[in-house]
Amino acid sequence: MIMKPTRDGYGEALLLLGESNPDVVVLDADLAMSTRTNWFWEKYPERFFDIGIAEQDMLGTAAGLAMGGKIPFATTYGVFIAGRGWDQIRTTICYANLNVKIAGMHGGISVGPDGATHQALEEIALMRVLPNMHMIVPCDAIEGRKATLGASQVSGPVYLRFTREATPVFTQETDEWQLGKANLLRAGSDVTIIGCGPVLYEALLAADELAKEGVSCRVLNMHTIKPIDADAILAAAAETGAIVTVEEHQINAGLGSAVAEVLVKHNPVPVEMIGIMDTFGESGSPEELAIKYGLKQKDVKAAVRKVLGRK
Questions:
Q1: Is residue 296 a part of any domain in this protein?
Q2: Gyration radius (Cα) of the chain, Å
Q3: C-beta of residue 18 within 8 angstroms of C-beta of residue 181
Q4: Catalytic amino acids?
Q5: Collapsing DSSP states into helix, strand and coil, what is residue 158?
């Protein structure tokens, strides 16, 4: 199994965009080595801007570049860019519907020893509530590259969420990627598991184990949180009758909530949600934290059994 951080896909995509589109520029807030923007910096230094530890200034600068016809990718840790810069994202970028791409790195608890202050667990909620914003959470490095390339083709603001740790690469180069369209990773008829980000791999492992018990799990990669693929969600509800959502994010207002919003309007079915249960993270290894906060395959299996009991 190949292991790579999803942020590597971002860095690779920026190099491709730098070569193909002279209007692409990259901004960073003094974290280029961690965010992989240093790869772009080394090859296209005249189109790279290190704004320093000034996230709000970086977003304002990105807005100005967008107004001048550039396609800026503003990049730093998700907890800083989505938290400190929320007002600039809301009022300067989204209100004006500017063509700014925002990359939030180190999403989720898998940041590990950096602890609660650096573990972004709220950005899906913060970003998906904003009008005009698109929200993407790649599940592996291959999808990270595809999502970044796809974001460059979208007119308007896009938020991309990436993780730090090396995680399994389980999608294929040949898999189609389209904004707002979920990818079917596994067919199934008893229950549907809908996930985003690298934690989706745990869902696949759980589905494999449950298959041995005679439980048929459909697994959907909901890489785009906004606009969400309502058709795929409603098809899953109609055809399997039960849903489990999996995300490395607060359980409140994240992917699970977005899925439930679709279901409650059209076809309410039993839903169980796996995520961070309204708490802050802490320091520890990514594996230790995933176990403590219930993001492993055993937790997915337990949620599937619970939701099946509610059908």
A1: yes
A2: 19
A3: no
A4: 55
A5: strand
